[in-house]
Amino acid sequence: MVTKKIKIDSQKATPELLNDAAEIIRSGGLVAFPTETVYGLGADAFNEEAVKKIYKAKGRPSDNPMIVHIADKGDILNVCSEVPPAARLLMEKFSPGPITYILKKNKSVNDTVTAGLDTVAVRIPSDNTARALIKAAGVPIAAPSANLSGKPSPTRAAHVSEDMDGRIECIIDGGDCDIGVESTVIDMTGEFPVILRPGGITIEMIKEYIPSAVENTRLTGDIPKSPGMKYRHYAPNASVTVVEGDKRDAVLKKICSLCEENGGKRIGVILRDKTEFPICADFILYAGRTGSEYASKLFALLRECDDKNAELVIAETDRSEGINTAVRNRIYKSAADNVIQVF
Question: Which of 138, 144, 226, 292 has an alpha carbon 20 to 30 Å from 249's alpha carbon atom?
């Protein structure tokens, strides 16, 4: 299969400019497209055979549900049977944006999208290209991240090409993603809202409007309600060790000792900022001083570690809140929870 490439200025994207890609969606094909979080791999959410192609292209387990993307709030009842008042409140405050709602699905959404659950994950992306594509296609688009299952999510079109060239019909290059980690997922079907996956909309932001909201990223039952809960995700080829703590000197000393202990391996280190500590790694990458910088660079840095043939990646994190919660969630999964806390 030859994968078509479409480059577009996201600020100028219109449904008319994306009609070729939309026709691929309408015809049952797969299109990778940018969002404000990561690139998604999209298919017509109402076409079961098209959705099955996503699982095949990614090598994705069939018990891992997908997120359905819609263009406007008025489209919500096309995929959901009911929208509780609390969900409507959050939509008013945060949508379009990097937040996904778990709601009761209606019959139009096939079980392949939801892994057989009676709930559906739905969101309204704020990225102009994503919304223009959905409008042009005229159908909701089911879309997990546009990477091979388990690998770091793509935040650039080049990352998508690395994994998906020859596997899908089209890649839309809309530039780098702004946020860099997948959307917050919040379950609105229970007694109170439960955040299943942290993201750009933080629990602190949600609690401003719904104080009863809680966070629980642990899997309960065999089939997760949210993607990103059950399997190892976001992993480079190298093994990953996370070192975290509130005192940076202690964290850096531990990273130094791990480098010395693993001297026979090619080691890459991801730091938040530059340091005078004599870290004896083969290379050092810098994620940025703020949580937002770290989030936007994380997956690209993990892929760069692959490009540099790292055998071991040691990554610095801290215990601060906000979007750093999402950073830790992703990098813990990339490390299969191999986390060293120092105090």
Answer: 292
Which of 158, 144, 148, 121 lies closest to 234, judged by CA?
Answer: 148
pTM: 0.94
Structure-token match 């105090």, residue found: 343
Contact 274, 286 (CB under 8 A): yes
CB neighbour class for 222 (10 Å; exposed up to 12, middle 13-18, buried from 19): exposed
Question: Starting from the edge strand earliest in sequence, which strands make up the sheet with 267-271, in order?
Answer: 283-286, 267-271, 312-317, 239-244, 339-341
Is residue 327 within 8 Å of 295, Cβ to Cβ? yes
| Contact assessment for residue 145 and residue 38, using Cβ atoms and an 8 Å cutoff | yes
Q: Which residues of 265-295 are buried (b: 16+ CB within 10 A; e: fewer)?
A: eebbbbbbeebeeebebeeebbbbeebbbbb
pLDDT at residue 232, rounded to an integer: 61
- Low pLDDT (below 50) residues in the chain: none
pLDDT of residue 222: 55
Cis peptide before 96 (omega within 30 of 0): yes
| Residues 232, 160: Cα–Cα separation, whole Å | 19
Smallest Cα–Cα separation from 294: which of 312, 265, 270, 310?
Answer: 270
Residue type, 321: E
Place of tokens 């899908």: 168
| CA distance to 44, 64, 80, 293, per residue, from 109 (Å) | 10, 15, 8, 36
Q: What share of the chain is helix, strand, coil (3-state, %, to 5)?
A: 30, 20, 50
